[in-house]
From TrEMBL:
Compartment list: Cell envelope
Classification via PROSITE patterns: PROKAR_LIPOPROTEIN, TAT
Protein's UniProt name: Sugar ABC transporter substrate-binding protein
Segments of this protein annotated with the region Disordered: 31-56
Any one of the GO CC terms: cell envelope
Transmembrane stretches, start-end: none
Family assignment from sequence similarity: Belongs to the bacterial solute-binding protein 2 family.
Top-level taxon in the UniProt lineage: Bacteria
Domain Periplasmic binding protein positions: 59-312
Signal peptide: 1-29
Pfam hit, one: Peripla_BP_4
Record keywords, A-Z: Signal
């Protein structure tokens, strides 16, 4: 028999505001699953490991519109991960980039009394209040990637490292060009109205500061789309008749950038991508273009968010850690994928 709303509310408040967890049952590095009968890895799914079934948990998932390969992979990772658990029911919204619509969708999930919410807000600041509303109602919130403006609006945040993306891209390029005198680098960034773009550029610049032989000679912003990548890259190629390396913030716009590069017949430089699209990894594997690496911003974070939500709903901690509670924040590492390690990361590449 299910607990009364009052008991459910009381137990949730204890979980949110300091109650000890019953056991340590989730291991995020390997993640968790009840399904051990299939050894094949989904092309967009995090690796799984066996774990015993626990109490049933209903997880509400709300994200923005999947109008980009990475966002679509986020949704697929959440769905696929939830399906591996016999004790998880996933209620997923349509997804919208309109903040009022997304707030309404989350309100519906709150009113349906889901046990835990996973929210990737279209706008973290604009949706902070609805996160606070859920937490005050005793529903733990796992804030995915785009962070709320108030830490009281979520129990746990998990997301990528935009600064780390730029830092690791910069160090990879720096090492490749260490022996090149007066090396010239260009940057094809994401939209400048996004905070994450500035973080990626800052990390890149900080890394290049360690290599006095390298100068960043140009930076242009695209829009995370194939079309904008091709258009902006064409302009960069015309303005820069010769350079040694290119860092592109996003593999979707990188498809367009590679088209422009092929059309211009340029191959004197190396290119590093960003995010970890399957097409980019396959190009790195084939080693038949200027694209030699991509820096991950892994959509598998959505699978881990489901793991965290399940852990919260079942009063579990994180396996491998001494604490009884899950962490308040988890920042994923932006690994550099090259021809040497692409086989390892290829299963996580998104379409």
């Amino acid at each position: 028999m299910s607990a009364s709303p009052a008991r459910r509310f009381a137990s949730r408040r204890g979980l949110l505001f300091g109650g000890a967890a019953a056991s340590a049952g989730v291991f995020l590095a390997g993640c968790t699953s009840n399904d051990t009968g299939d050894d094949e890895e989904d092309s967009q799914q995090a690796p799984v490991a066996e774990e015993s079934e626990g109490p049933p948990v209903t997880i509400g998932f709300a994200g923005p519109q999947a109008d980009h390969g990475w966002l679509n992979a986020i949704n697929e990772n959440a769905r696929s991960r939830a399906e591996t658990y016999a004790d998880v029911t996933l209620e997923i919204t349509e997804g919208s980039n309109d903040t009022a619509t997304q707030i309404g969708q989350i309100e519906t999930l709150i009113n349906s009394q889901v046990d835990v919410l996973v929210i990737l807000p279209a706008d973290g600041i604009a949706l902070t209040q609805i996160g606070l509303t859920a937490m005050r109602a005793g529903i733990p919130v796992v804030n995915l990637d785009r962070i709320f403006d108030n830490p009281q609006a979520y129990r746990c945040w998990i997301g990528g490292d935009n600064y780390g993306m730029g830092l690791n891209a910069g160090h990879f390029i720096g090492e490749q060009l260490r022996d090149v005198q007066n090396a010239r680098v260009v940057e094809l960034s994401g939209p400048d109205n996004l905070e994450l773009t500035g973080q990626r550029t800052q990390g890149f610049d900080d890394a290049l500061a360690n290599y006095p032989n390298i100068e960043k000679v140009a930076r242009q912003a695209a829009e995370f789309t194939v079309e904008s990548g091709q258009e902006v890259m064409s302009g960069l190629l015309q303005a820069q008749p010769e350079f040694d390396a290119l860092w592109n913030h996003d593999d979707d716009q990188g498809v367009g950038a590679l088209r422009a590069i092929d059309q211009a017949g340029r191959d004197e430089f190396i290119m590093v991508g960003g995010a970890g699209a399957r097409s980019a990894m396959e190009a790195i594997q084939a080693d038949d273009s200027v694209l030699k690496a991509t820096v991950l911003y892994p959509p598998t974070m959505a699978a881990s968010a489901i793991d965290l939500a399940r852990a919260l709903g079942q009063s579990r901690g994180v396996g491998g850690l001494a604490e009884f509670e899950i962490p308040s924040s988890i920042t994923l590492y932006s690994a550099v994928v090259t021809r040497e390690n692409v086989e390892q990361y290829l299963p996580t590449g998104f379409n």
